[in-house]
Amino acid sequence: MEAILVKDQKAAAFVMEDGTFEGVYRITEKVCGDVEQVTGVRPKIIKWQGELQPAQVYVATLGNSEMSEAIAEEEGIELSSLCGKRECFLFQVLKNGSLLIAGSDKRGTIYGLFHISELMGVSPFVHFADVVPAPQKEIIFSEKDSMQSKEPSVKYRGFFINDEWPAFGNWTFSHYGGFTAEMYDLIFETLLRLKGNYLWPAMWTSSFSLDGPGEENARLADCYGIVMSNSHHEPCLRHSEEWDLVRGEDSVYGNEWSYLTNREGLIRYWRDGLLRSGKYENIITIGMRGERDSLMLGEDASLEQNISLLKEIITEQRKLIRECVGENEPEMLALYKEVEAYYYGDETTPGLNDWDGLDGVTLMLCEDNYGNMRTLPTEEMRSHRGGFGMYYHFDYHGSPVSYEWVNSSYLPKIWDQMTMAYDFGVRDIWIVNVGDLKFQEYPLSFFMDLAYDYEKWGSNRIHAPQDYLAYWVKREFGGWFYEAQQDAVYRIMQQYTKMNHNCKPEAMRADTYHPVHFGEADKRQKENERLEAETEKLLSSVPEEMLPAFWELVYYPAMGSANASDMQLYAGKNSFFAKMGAVCANDYAEKIKACIEKDRLLTERFHQLLDGKWDGMALSEHIGFVNWNDEECRYPLMTFIEPANKPRIFAMSEGGDVCTAGGDWTKKLIVMRQFLDPAVSEASLLLFGGSKEKVPYHIECKSPWVLPGKMQGVTDREEVLTVQIKRDEITDWENDHRTYDFEVCYEGGRIPVKILLEKDLPGCPAEAFYETDGMLSVEAEHFICNEKADAGAFYVLPEYGKTLSGVKAYPQTKTFFEMAEQIRQAPKLTYQIYVREAGEYEMICYTAPANPVCQGGSVYFGCAVNGNAPQKIEMIPDGYRSGEPSCAEWAKMVVDQIRVVRVQVTLQSGENEIGIYAGTPGFLLEKLTFVRKGKHLPESGLGLPETRRTNR
Predict the structure, then answer these.
(1) Contacts (Cβ under 8 Å, ≥6 apart) of 250
(2) What is the four-CA torsion angle of 618, 624, 626, 631, rounded to 10 degrees?
(3) Terminal-residue alpha carbon distance, the chain
(4) Which whole-number Å values give the CA distances from 434 to 33, 107, 232, in the listed order?
(5) pLDDT of 7-31, one tens digit each?
(6) What string of DSSP letters covers 679-746?
(7) For the purposes of burial, counting CB atoms within 10 Å of the CB of 165, is it exposed (0-12), middle (13-18) or buried (19 or more)?
(8) Sign of CA dihedral 762, 764, 770, 774
(9) Residue 951: its pLDDT value, please?
(10) 391 in helix, strand or coil?
């Protein structure tokens, strides 16, 4: 059996009956538009005539359709499996060559209609990101396409348009005259194509229920079956901006946003909001905060006073809802900022958590505004009637640094954190702050699909982030791009999103990555060069039809991010070399200028796409934030130096930061420490010109084992001088150590260079990571043994975090031990390391940013050295307050995207085994570094790179 939708330039008609929901009819028109875009033929929409005809598409909603019952009876189809289900649809090819789309409810029917678009290769962003579907001559569905959809995993799934100025606001006023129903029609369509059903509208300067014009926004949302709600501080279907429109000394609502002094005015204000908008489908926000997202009673009020007042307010609001809207209406209380403290109370003050006044209310939880879970429901809490929601962020306007430009949310982290929320029982509402929505299409797709089908993308699928990116690339570009082009898009998306995860563009500074230590600035720049080169190369092969989509989804965010990164990397080098006096500082200043111009040009070109269709959407500031917001943000400082009037050369060992021009009085010595690693036989000495003219130099070296890449040369800017050591020929070792010297000589001085060598590693195990110069580093996935426990096991999370990957124990809701004597029962990872000297070492544990996941809890793990008694390692210091800008440790953690835990350990000379035990939820290890006491770990953005294994 097959159902022909389009063939030979003829299209099947869509059949609907009297009483069809308006929203279903509207979506049918949009799907007909999709068919026309794909095939060039637009299907007609006709009325049901009471009998089944061949080659038609029948669209029905159970409980609102005699047609579906008649078709089911004639075709022998069982519809009972849809009855009582939430948002499900049957997509059935019929015996007579027709197609039946039957929804269990209005949204189910709409999802069924858009399933046609999916099967035709139409992207959810066909309009919002201009993803043109590939043309097809015919559309035919076979029996294998027949299916019944599942109930969505999360009940309410959607996004919050927020922080909408200057980008989204300028765009919508320019194109739609404001936050109107015409604009929201595009937003609603995109949400439904993503199988969402829930929206928080823009609210900085707009009122959803007034700007349609009038109630047209709300009416249209209800027509489409979209459940509306308001943000955490907008109760009773009122919008933040509405209050300023109606308040006043002579207003019936009063002038003060204070329940203590204006109780009757606020009750009337809330009642009128409920009467106006309660006829539509909503989740009604309850509770109260101060004006403009502030404290309700001020800082001097006690916890008890705040809780008591909030109870009174909520009681009155729920009474109003019953009177004005109805019984059992969905209600939501956001436990955001200080309201969370009111919910939990403290040792002396009972909170709202034991109060029956919240029975049936969904409790909206929130991460720390930077995507890190906190205060998830305990097992005892999960029985709360009303369930739990999660307010997540891809965009944030607040301390320590706002992020509102292109996507900086990394799929592996989103997957890790949101699966944790789901596994902890947060399954009623998922809402994500997407800012302007533009440039968040990729992470939003994943967020929505994870919420819709957790069984497919959830915690049982460790490679879900990678699998999803491949799926997303194919969905958006597969109709036009060859496999090699799709692979390129995959790499570009992966690289730029990880780069922005490691440091959000707004937060990046000239010193985020050190200009010389570990060569990390050079490595970042090379990665950026590869990213930009691959993106430019791919752009040249993109079909014309897909150029706008490629620009919007890939090119602009990737190129803009790489350029913003380069700008700060050049600034770091400019500052560093200017202090040295090297002429190349001026070159880096010019490169900063070029990046600034490129940033402006990219924005200008984006705004010109499709005759300015998205003009305004790239206006968000994104470089050089010096405050939490964009006030006083600036491009990097540029320092220009005046070259010396005499010959001058500076030298520096690669990765070091000691430089000298070889003066007689300063007597600085350049030490090349790279050869302390027995595997290293070649390293670099860096030469920098400091004069107006080119300066000749020559090398003086007496050792036959030291081979400079050249013995003479001329430099005026930067030069890399390679130095080789003939390790196999050295005969004058001194207790496995050796030093050699040579000099770089020029007219202005003689630069002494000392080379330090270590011979070999006697007795070092084949898989051990060995110490060089008192330091070593191991990526978390490079354990030698992964011991499962009865309660769970560690798993490697590919591409997680700032460097290679992460390791985490599952089930992720499990606390594997509480007391030190229980540690050995937990899952364990063993790392093998080798050090030359016994003694005290600092073990630096780099873990994913983590907050206590339950109120009053902690985050910890276990550690054992060489089989000794394990220790419980607490990760959270006293006084730590997640989400509080005044907490310096939290602020540093979220900006750096890493938590650093330092543990003092005693190691023996030679082989050592380090055991890491799973502890609480939230512990996710990325890297281990060991530093011998007395040694200094150089500053860097990513830490010491992984050192070598003996056999690698």
Answers:
(1) none
(2) -30
(3) 58
(4) 27, 23, 15
(5) 999 999 999 999 999 999 999 999 9
(6) T--EEEEEEEE-BSS-EEEEEEE--TTEEES-SEEEESSEEEEEEEE-GGG----BTTEEEEEEEEEE
(7) middle
(8) negative
(9) 60
(10) strand
Alpha carbons 220 and 228: distance in angstroms, whole number? 11
Q: How far apart are CA 897 and CA 416, in angstroms?
A: 14
Q: Minimal CA–CA distance to 496: which of 435, 572, 410?
A: 410
User: Following CA atoms 133, 136, 141, 142 in sequence, which dihedral angle do they give, to the nearest 10 degrees?
Assistant: -120
Rounded Cα gap, residues 85 and 62, in angstroms: 10
Helix (H), strand (E) at residue 344: helix 338-344
Q: Is 917 helix (H, G, I), strand (E, B) or coil?
A: strand
| 749-758/670-672 β-pairing | parallel
Interval 378-432: pLDDT, tens? 999 999 999 999 999 999 999 999 999 999 999 999 999 999 999 999 999 999 9
Q: Measured between alpha carbons, how far is 493 from 475 in angstroms, rounded to an integer? A: 14
Q: Is 71 exposed, middle or buried (0-12, 13-18, 19+ CB in 10 A)?
A: buried
Q: How far is CA 191 from the centre of its chain?
A: 19
- H/E stretch holding 569 reads helix 556-580
Strands 99-103 and 56-61: parallel
DSSP state letter for 525: H
Overall pTM surpassing 0.70 (yes/no): yes
Which pLDDT belongs to residue 300?
Answer: 84
Instruction: Say what angle helices 106-119 and 22-39 make with each other, to 10 degrees.
Output: 0
Provide φ and ψ at 888, rounded to 5°: -60, -35
Domains and CATH numbers, the chain: 2-148 (3.30.379.10), 156-462 (3.20.20.520), 483-611 (1.20.58.2150), 649-758 (2.60.40.10), 769-932 (2.60.120.1620)
Tokens of 877: 């210091």
Longest dimension (CA), the chain: 103
The pLDDT of residue 952 is: 54
What's the sign of the alpha-carbon dihedral 67, 70, 74, 79? positive
CA distance 218 to 176: 17
For residues 900 and 752, what is the distance between their CA atoms, to the nearest angstrom?
A: 37
* Residue 673 CB neighbour total at 10 angstroms: 18
Confidence band (pLDDT; 50, 70, 90) for 788? very high
pLDDT, tens only, 318-349? 999 999 999 999 999 999 888 999 999 999 99
- Could you tell me which residues are beta bridge partners of residue 862? 872, 917
Q: Determine the 3-state secondary structure of 395 from DSSP.
A: coil
Please tell me the distance from the alpha carbon of residue 466 to that of residue 497, in angstroms, as a whole number. Answer: 13
Q: Indicate the DSSP class of residue 317.
A: H
Q: Which of these, 125, 84, 96, 120, lies nearest to 15 by C-alpha position?
A: 96
Percent of the chain with pLDDT over 70: 100
β-pairing, 659-660 with 649-653?
antiparallel
Neighbours of 56 (CB within 10 A): 22
Q: Map residue 804 onto helix, strand or coil.
A: coil
DSSP string computed for 35-73: HHHHHS-PPPEEE--SS--SSEEEEEETTS-HHHHHHHH
Q: What is the pLDDT of residue 64?
A: 86
Q: Which helix (H) or strand (E) is 829 found in, with range?
A: strand 828-835
54 vs 77: CA distance, rounded Å: 16
Q: What is the pLDDT of residue 293?
A: 67
Amino acid in the structure at residue 899 = R
Judge whether 403 and 506 are in contact, CB under 8 Å: yes
Which helix (DSSP H) or strand (DSSP E) does residue 915 occupy? strand 910-917
Q: Phi/psi at 474 (nearest 5 deg)?
A: -65, -40
Characterise 851 by phi-psi region: left (phi > 0), alpha (psi -120 to 50), beta (else).
beta
Residue type, 827: P
Q: Are 225 and 23 contacting, i.e. CB atoms less than 8 angstroms apart?
A: yes
Angle subtended at Cα 214 by Cα 210 and Cα 217, rounded to the nearest 5 degrees: 80
